[in-house]
Specification:
alpha/beta
């Protein structure tokens, strides 16, 4: 039978206990993790942002030098223990930690291997005795600190002379046994045989327990009555025993002492009484026996222990303190340590810094081992003592220390303090022997104080102080040792502003030593290189220091590396000292500098030759192409040099003195060919003011100068003889700042033919004639042209137009010479491209040429236009199309791909978009993509970067391209676009003219730029400025043949002046000129300039014969200074419709007159010419479209008169007719001419009305006595109308051919007149004339005198009025009136000619101001139209007659309307203000007392509201809009409204119309609206328009935005307006003393999302389709937001508390709410200057929204709305408030949330009144500009860990164990 096996019961209870204990630990851990503060997420290593050019490389591939032998620390940071996939390797980390722990435990038992030091430290209210660090003995009583214990925080760790080896300590158990069972300490077994080893006392602890022998804890000490003197009562015990009893058993001691003394006193008394036996028989007192073990108080026990311990008894002043024992291999529990109370002897060597008794080791710590302090977090400050010589590699890497005193360390190892972000202060002593600072020693540390490197430092390692982002200042102490600064030593130290090398000698400064990765935060402005010598430096030393301005190189003699100042854009000064004479640098050293005033300073010479820095600067270049200034000192004056490179690559060296004089210019480039020299405006930042004599001495340069350009805003003075005898100089451009040109400045420049003068910046008077020196332009050449503005008094113009200023030809000494030709510039404002010259006889400045379209088409002949075209090419290349836009890049990319395929002769190519192009289509495809974006940079190999494969395909044989030319005419690379197609703006103009081209769709480079339009307009609109006297080029040509032949002969203009082809009249505008192609209908004859549209002759005094003959497109001529006009100057100018004459030759309605005086000095006129467009309805000129000529239409007709003129040769007098020959020739659109009022007209000259085919009525006055040949000739009678000619003269000499053909005329005249005889003789139809009858009547119908008869056309004068009718002129003829004028029934007056028979004139009167029938007259006048108006009770003159002393409303005046009728509205946006003012300015009302005749003005204001308002009322300073129904009748017209009344009765009912938004009202205290002293406010897109007095606070609000829009801001251009806020929907301003217009601007609003909002009551979805902002809240309350200024209104929600009914919360805008909020905020803050607010009225309505809930008792609403648009930027600074008690602000407990990313504010409305959301901008809380939570904010990883631990804890705690069954 098998033996039965007993199975143990599973220990389920134990497992459950363990599991739950672990669960508790996990939960505690979770809580601790959650409480950990989140650290700033700042990475130390910022290399990710490095400049790729100068990114720091890892030193020796990331392996810094130095020992890593330290088995007592982790060999690397915990974070570096990772698996291959990058995740943490917990297993490897645990193994490494276990290994380190094992190494420590193995070593500490062998003092020769590892020695721990101790420290007593307080923490958390407790005291701890722990180990501080471990050190390895290294012999000779020195040690190497290998590990620091980071368990407890330490303010200061002092790595002192000697470590604390062992603290005096007593184990707590041993201390207790000491008093309770001291014998237990001396036996092998404890009570009941328990092993003594459980106490675990070390031998040292046993020693500390040893008491003095006398007071062994168990020794009983007795005190009996015998110890008290019987005689004296004195205690006879020794002092120590007395101290024992008094100190520890004082009460007992006192009791026994008293008892003993009493006993002896009784004893002595009996004895003295002789009772000795009785005394002896007395009961003896008991004795006091105590031992130390009887001391129960712990304090007394510790005191006793200190007094009697064999160690502490010798050191008074110590007491015991209990500390937890945390030493390595320590006993469990706590120990007592000895702490001094300050009485310990000062020279004691056994007291630590905390006052604890310690035994110090005599070992000196001389080095700190690898990672000894790495990653410690509890040490704040480190003090390294003088004996520490070495800080090994990574000793403090990653430690959170704040400061370190390096002490006397000689070597600081690689990465010793790497990544110590908290390390703010590093201290080296003045005499520190530190010599080596290792690689990356302080990399990424937080040093933020001045760093003083000691004088013995000889090496600062690679990256030693890199990325010390807070390091601001660094100081090297003076030393005689050569120091080396390694690569990247101070790299990335953006705040390092000061580096002081003192007088240190440096062997080398390494690469990027002081460079930074990026310019952000760079504060370094000055940098001084070592003054005592620097042997070498590597590249990029100061790279990326964009804030660096000044660099001083003190003692360097080698070549400065090329990238030393890489990206130092802000550099302004680099100075080489005199010791650097041999130093040089590469030409690209300063290529990245962008500062205009950058300079290099240095010595002038070195060894008698230009110094190295100086010559290097000559060759130096900048990327922006600007020169670099070199400055040197000589003889106490500074000189500035600069080398500049021209566009053709030629380099020059310029020098200037400190006063701005250019003193020299020399060639740097050898044999450059002919050069175009541009004088720089600056040498560095030295403005060049003048060019000194002798500046151009360089003969090499003098021989090749072809042109000279002086830029604008540069030189003011050109010195004497500066450019003299430059034999190849052809062209000069003089800038706008030149004010003086010295004598002989350009003398002898025999090939100088063109000088261009820019408009002077200081005005034309800045360069006067006297400012141009003698012989300045005596070039000895045969011609010279000045190009500049034509301005009188302008020096160049005056010099050129001086008839006596002649160019002398040295080869023709007897030749008088020619003048300088003067030509205005193409872009001149003083006439475009005009050519003028003086008449050598008269001095008149004559216009010889002007711009023509041909000039633009042949632009290659004009240098100015050629330069413009080249400038446009540059503009399109590098401004318009030098972009990285996708469209341009796509064309470049596709062009490159196609071009490469074409170049490689491929059969086809596929573009990135999928399009395939075959070989035959490639050239066309390239042409489609060919434009200015194909620029020089692209063609210079740049196109290869656009290839699909990213590089160039192998070159094909050149033979592949011989017969395959590219459209860009290149075999391999394409040509820049404008090389293949040079820019010609006339091609673009033709694009504009071509109707088959969609001009607007063309790219910019194919359209006409604005400047070209100016050129073109210059050819069409010729402006001849003041200073030009004549346009008679023909006379000039005859009298100035030398000038003409030199400058004009054989030019295109010469043809116009000499050819008569096509019947052309030679002349400036009239000559032979072919403007258009043969089939172009814009030109009917090849003569006259048909491209000009207008001519302005500002100062021209004479117009020659036929001056503008056949200028078919000419439409306007101005000639304000003309004094002489030739024959028919505007013949055949069929489109001339606008003529402006002069005082001597005025023009009226298209007729040009000549003005002169008669014998009496009266003005009289002759008609010179009538424009062909007179009478043409389609002319576009209303004045010209009048097709009749008479005194009624042409005011000067009555003053026509002939004039006598002396012949030009002075030998006779010519009588000139009042109408010049041919004056009306060809005027076919004139229908009638009535000259009956021309009473002095005598002759109708030859051709006067030739071919006036439209005239049907012609009236000649009786004064005409002659009609010349062909006066009315019609050469095309078929198109001529039948002309009725009335001749009032009875004896007129009519030439036989005057009226031809004769069947086209009917002559009206008197019978038996010469006209009748002429008609009868020539068979012309004749009709006789009759007289007209005229009557005069008074106002009341009384006929004044008899009828009179007059001829037709007769005019009455005051003298010829019949005598009977003159009664009206008499005073008081009509009471209350005075005579005004005579008026006929057809509206004519006696000033008009009599045109009709039976004409009746009636006398007209006006009021003379006297009372009418004893009553005062009151008339009402419309304030906008000026017309009178009236209503019921007024007379025919719109007058109300009022009894003097009464008012308008007085019953004595009858039933007059009160209020009076309102004036009709106007159409100009103004409404009646319901206010009247008298003619003296007083306010008028119906109650105003009237005592005189008066006129009352109705006042108007600009409309408010949003509709068409005309009328309305004004309230509190604001005008509300309205519409007028009915209205009043105004004289002459009725405007606005509809009249519902007759003249004597008018209705004045006015109904106010509501606008979309209520107008805001003024907060002014005045409630009276007055138009006097008021001004108008017009709010565009908002409310608040009206009339306001200055000083009134005006409130305006924007309207509700349209769908998809939101309010953006207010804008105004009105003076004196300071808006309180431009972004709030409601704002205010103080009314200035002028009219104001304010505009509300709206922009497109982002789409509003549909938001599901569940507020707890059932929820609801925001109705995003409702633009009024209606949102359902919890199913019972919704929010309607009508007030503008809140976007995303659909997100608003509300919950109503206190009722289950359905409600609607309405948030709207009212004036009352706005005013109340403004008042409440003012009460709270005193002023609204810093307050931004959004006022709103919140009201509660029933579910229908129609009934307002007035009883809201017990109701409140929780409202959530988006923060108003104008306040959303202030986030959590927003506050909500309610107005209570009318003007008090109640603060609400608002909070914030976000819905769909929209910031919202939530508050409770407990009463329904004005509310506001507002911000106090003067008290913003930092960091709270946006405190609203955002969806998607990152969650710190600690929360995931904390939650995970908590969940795991709960699972473990609740888990149930399975019951385990025992197996049999």
């Amino acid at each position: 039978m098998a033996k039965k096996t007993t199975v143990k019961k599973p220990k389920r209870r134990l497992k459950k206990t363990v599991r739950r204990s672990f669960a508790v630990v996990l939960m505690i851990t979770a809580v601790v993790v959650a409480a950990i503060p989140v650290p700033e997420n700042l990475a130390v290593d910022t290399r990710a942002d490095d400049d790729p050019v100068i990114s720091p490389v890892a030193y020796e591939e990331g392996t810094p030098t130095g020992s890593t032998n330290n088995p007592y620390v982790l060999p690397k940071p915990e974070s570096e223990y990772k698996k291959e996939d990058g995740t943490a390797d917990e297993t490897a980390l645990a193994a490494a930690k276990a290994a380190v722990e094992g190494n420590i435990m193995d070593a500490i038992n062998d003092p020769s291997k590892l020695v721990p030091t101790e420290i007593v430290t307080p923490y958390g209210g407790n005291l701890y005795l722990t180990w501080q660090f471990l050190y390895e003995p290294t012999g000779n009583k020195t040690g190497r600190l290998v590990k620091y214990n980071d368990e407890f925080p330490a303010e200061l760790v002092n790595l002192g002379l000697q470590p604390n080896r062992s603290y005096f300590n007593v184990h707590q158990n041993a201390f207790n046994l000491y008093f309770n069972n001291p014998d237990y300490l001396n036996t092998d077994k404890g009570p009941e045989g328990e092993e003594k080893e459980t106490i675990k006392l070390s031998p040292g602890q046993m020693d500390n327990l040893s008491p003095t022998s006398l007071f062994y804890p168990t020794n009983k000490i007795s005190y009996t009555y015998r110890d008290v003197s019987k005689a004296t009562g004195e205690v006879l015990l020794d002092e120590e025993t007395i101290h024992f009893f008094e100190t520890y058993f004082g009460g007992d001691y006192d009791t026994y002492t008293k008892e003993f003394k009493t006993y002896w006193e009784e004893y002595k008394k009996l004895e003295q009484e002789g009772q000795k036996d009785a005394a002896d028989a007395m009961t003896k007192p008991g004795s006091l026996e105590r031992a130390a073990s009887d001391i129960n108080n712990e304090t007394d026990r510790k005191k006793y222990f200190c007094e009697h311990n064999r160690i502490l008894s010798r050191l008074p002043g110590y007491n015991l303190e209990l500390a937890s024992d945390r030493r390595l291999a320590a006993n469990e529990g706590s120990v007592y340590v000895a702490h001094g109370d300050g009485n310990v002897p000062a020279d004691s060597n056994y007291k630590d810094v905390g006052g604890y008794l310690v035994e110090q080791d005599d070992t000196l710590i001389t080095s700190i081992a690898y990672r000894a302090f790495a990653d410690v977090h509890n040490v704040k400050n480190i003090q390294i003592d003088q004996y520490v010589r070495t800080i090994e590699r990574s000793a403090f890497q990653g430690a959170d220390i704040a400061s370190v005193d390096i002490g006397n360390a000689i070597t600081i190892g690689d990465r010793a303090f790497y990544g110590c972000k908290s390390l703010k202060e590093v201290t080296f002593s003045d005499n520190s022997p530190t010599a080596t600072i290792g690689v990356e020693a302080f990399y990424g540390s937080g040093i933020n104080t001045k760093l003083n490197l000691p004088k013995h430092v000889s090496s600062v390692g690679h990256g030693a102080f890199a990325y010390c982002l807070d390091l601001t200042e660094m100081q090297f102490f003076e030393t005689g040792d050569a120091c080396t600064i390694g690569d990247f030593a101070f790299y990335g130290d953006t705040r390092l502003s000061t580096v002081n090398f003192a007088r240190t000698v440096f062997q080398k400064i390494g690469k990027c030593a002081f460079a930074i990765a990026a310019p952000s935060g760079d504060t370094m402005t000055d940098f001084h290189f070592p003054s005592e010598g620097l042997e070498s430096m590597d590249d990029y030393v100061l790279a990326n220091r964009r804030g660096l301005q000044n660099v001083y190189i003190e003692n360097y003699t080698r070549k400065v590396p090329v990238n030393t100042f890489y990206n130092c854009f802000g550099l302004k000064r680099v100075e080489f000292s005199d010791k650097c004479g041999s130093a040089t640098f590469d030409k690209e050293l300063f290529k990245d500098v962008t500062e205009d005033d950058f300079r290099v300073y240095g010595p002038e010479l070195y060894s008698g030759q230009p110094s190295g820095p100086r010559t290097s600067t000559w060759d130096a270049i900048r990327t922006d192409g600007k020169g670099i200034t070199y400055v040197y000192e000589k003889d106490g004056q500074l000189y500035y040099e600069m080398a500049l490179e021209s566009e053709d690559g030629t380099r020059y060296r310029y020098a200037a003195s400190e006063d701005g004089s250019l003193i020299s210019c020399a060639l740097i480039t050898r044999n450059p060919g002919m050069v175009d020299l541009v004088i720089p405006e600056k040498i560095g930042d030295i403005q060049i003011k003048n060019i000194g004599t002798g500046c151009f001495k360089d003969e090499d340069l003098r021989a090749v100068i072809r042109s000279i350009t002086i830029k604008n805003n540069s030189i003011s003075t050109i010195g004497d003889s500066v450019f003299r005898d430059l034999k190849n100089l052809k062209k000069v451009r003089i800038g706008d700042s030149v004010t003086n040109i010295g004598a002989n400045a350009f003398a002898g420049c025999s090939k100088l033919y063109d000088v261009y003068f820019t408009k002077p910046a200081g005005g034309y008077e800045a360069l006067k004639r006297e400012n141009i020196g003698e012989n300045a332009f005596v070039t000895t050449g045969d011609h010279l042209t000045f190009h500049g503005d034509i301005v009188e008094g302008y020096g160049p113009f005056e010099l050129a137009t001086d008839k006596d200023n002649l160019l002398r030809d040295p080869d023709r000494p007897t030749f008088p010479g020619v003048n300088i030709c003067y030509q205005s510039l193409w872009d001149s404002e003083q006439g475009t491209h005009l050519t003028v010259m003086p008449d050598q006889k008269t001095g008149e400045v004559t216009l010889l040429d002007y711009p023509k379209l041909q000039d633009l088409e042949n632009l290659t002949r004009d240098d100015e236009l050629q330069d413009f075209c080249r400038d446009m090419e540059e503009y399109y290349y590098y401004t318009v199309y030098n972009t990285d836009s996708e469209a341009v890049n796509t064309m470049r990319r596709e062009y490159a791909i196609i071009h490469n395929a074409w170049r490689m002769v491929e059969a086809s190519v596929t573009l990135p978009g999928g399009e395939t192009i075959v070989a035959d289509d490639m050239e066309d495809a390239m042409e489609m993509r060919y434009g200015p974006w194909i620029n020089p940079a692209y063609c210079d190999g740049g196109w290869k970067t656009y290839l699909s494969d990213g590089g160039e395909t192998a070159q094909a044989s050149i033979g592949d391209f011989l017969f395959k030319p590219l459209i860009a005419e290149a075999a391999t690379d394409p040509k820049p676009y404008f090389e293949a197609h040079p820019y010609n703006f006339m091609d673009n103009y033709n694009n504009y003219l071509d109707p088959t081209i969609d001009y607007d769709a063309l790219p910019e480079y194919k359209q006409v730029p604005q400047k070209v339009w100016n050129f073109i307009h210059g050819t069409q609109d010729v402006y001849v400025p003041a200073g030009v006297d004549s346009i008679d080029v023909i006379s000039y040509m005859e009298q100035n043949s030398d000038n003409y032949n030199k400058y004009i002969k054989n030019s295109p203009a010469d043809t116009m002046y000499t050819s008569t082809l096509g019947g052309a009249v030679p002349g400036l505008f009239s000559g032979y000129y072919k403007d258009y192609e043969d089939d172009d209908d814009r030109e009917s004859a090849v003569k006259g300039n048909d491209t000009i549209k207008s001519v302005i002759l500002t100062s021209v005094t004479a117009i020659p014969d036929y001056a503008f003959d056949n200028c078919e497109q000419l439409s306007r001529v101005e000639m304000p200074a003309v004094k002489d006009v030739g024959k028919m100057p505007f013949r055949d100018c069929k489109n001339l419709i606008d003529l402006v004459g002069s005082p001597d030759y005025p023009a009226e309605r298209g007729i040009l007159y000549e003005k002169h005086k008669d014998a009496d000095g009266n003005d009289r006129y002759r008609i010179i010419e009538c424009l062909l467009a007179r009478g043409r309805a389609s002319s576009g000129n209303a004045e010209l479209s009048v097709n009749t000529i008479s005194s009624a239409t042409d005011s000067l007709i009555p003053f026509l008169c002939e004039v006598c003129e002396t012949d030009k040769d002075g030998d006779g007098v010519t009588l000139l007719p009042a109408i010049a020959e041919g004056a009306f020739e060809g005027c076919e659109d004139i229908l009638s001419v009535n000259l009956s009022d021309a009473q002095w007209l005598k002759t109708i000259p030859k051709n006067a009305f030739k071919d006036c085919n439209g005239i049907s009525q012609m009236v000649l006055p009786g004064s005409v006595n002659k009609i010349a040949d062909d006066a009315f000739l019609r050469t095309n009678p078929a198109n001529a109308a039948l002309m009725n000619v009335t001749i009032y003269g009875r004896e007129v000499d009519i030439a036989d051919s005057a009226f031809m053909p004769r069947d086209k005329f009917i002559i009206y005249s008197y019978e038996d007149s010469a006209s009748q005889r002429y008609a009868d003789r020539h068979g012309i139809r004749f009709e006789p004339l009759d007289a007209f009858r005229v009557w005069f009547y008074d106002y009341d119908g009384t006929m004044l005198g008899d009828m009179v008869t007059v001829d037709k056309g007769y005019r009455f004068t005051e003298e010829t009025i019949p005598a009977a009718a003159k009664v009206v002129y008499e005073t008081n003829h009509r009471s209350g009136y005075k005579f005004d004028k005579w008026m006929s029934d057809d509206g004519k007056t006696t000033d008009d000619p009599i045109e009709n028979d039976m004409t009746v004139f009636v006398a007209q009167y006006t009021s003379d101001g006297t009372l009418v029938d004893g009553k005062c007259s009151v008339q009402f006048v419309h304030g906008r139209t000026g017309q009178t108006f009236s209503g019921r009770g007024a007379d025919d003159n719109d007058r109300y007659l009022i009894v003097p002393g009464t008012s308008f409303a007085d019953p004595l005046n009858g039933d007059l309307p009160t209020p009076v009728p309102s004036p009709n509205p106007t159409e100009d946006g103004y409404s009646f203000l319901n206010e009247f003012r008298t003619d003296t300015g007083e306010v008028w009302t119906p109650e105003t007392i009237i005592n005189r005749n008066m006129t009352v003005l109705a006042l108007f204001g600009q409309n408010g509201g949003n509709g068409n308002t005309s009328g309305g009322s004004t309230s509190s300073g604001s005008t509300s809009g309205g519409s007028t129904s009915g209205g009043s009748t105004s004289r002459g017209s009725t405007s606005g409204g509809s009249s519902n009344s007759s003249k004597n009765s008018s209705s004045n009912k006015s109904s106010s119309s509501s606008s979309s938004s209520t107008s805001s009202s003024s907060t002014s205290s005045s409630s009276t609206t007055s138009a006097v002293g008021q001004f108008t406010v017009f709010v565009e897109g908002g409310s608040g328009s009206g009339s306001y007095s200055p000083g009134t606070v005006v409130i305006i609000s924007c309207y509700m935005p349209a769908e998809g829009m939101r309010f953006e801001k207010w804008t105004t251009e009105s003076n004196g307006v300071a808006l309180a806020s431009t972004t709030m929907t409601t704002t205010t301003f103080t009314m200035p003393a002028n009219n104001v217009t304010v505009k509300a601007n709206y922009v497109e609003a982002p789409a509003t999302p549909t938001v599901a909002v569940n507020t707890g009551g059932g929820g609801g979805t925001g109705n995003t389709g409702n633009n009024t902002g209606t949102t359902n809240g919890n199913g019972s309350t919704r929010v309607d937001i009508d007030k503008p200024g809140i976007s995303n209104r659909d997100l608003a929600t509300a919950n109503t508390n206190g009722s289950s009914d359905n409600f609607i919360v309405k948030i709207s805008e009212t004036d009352e709410a706005t005013r109340a909020v403004a008042a409440a905020l003012t009460n709270k803050y005193g002023t609204l200057d810093n307050i931004l607010y959004y006022a709103m009225d919140i009201s509660l309505y029933d579910s229908t929204g129609t009934t307002k809930i007035t009883d809201t008792t017990g109701l409140s609403v929780d409202i959530t709305i988006p923060i108003p648009d104008s306040l959303v930027a202030y986030g959590g600074n927003n506050m909500a408030g309610a107005v209570i008690n009318g003007d008090q602000l109640e603060s609400l407990n608002e909070n914030f949330t976000t819905i769909n990313g929209v910031p919202c504010i939530r508050f409770r409305a407990e009463h329904f009144s004005p509310y506001t959301i507002y911000v106090d901008t003067g008290n913003l809380v930092a960091g709270e500009l946006d405190v609203t939570p955002k969806t998607g904010d990152p969650i710190h990883p600690k929360w995931f860990l904390s939650l995970g631990l908590a969940c795991l804890s709960i699972i473990l705690f609740l888990k149930k164990d399975k019951k385990v069954k025992a197996k049999a």
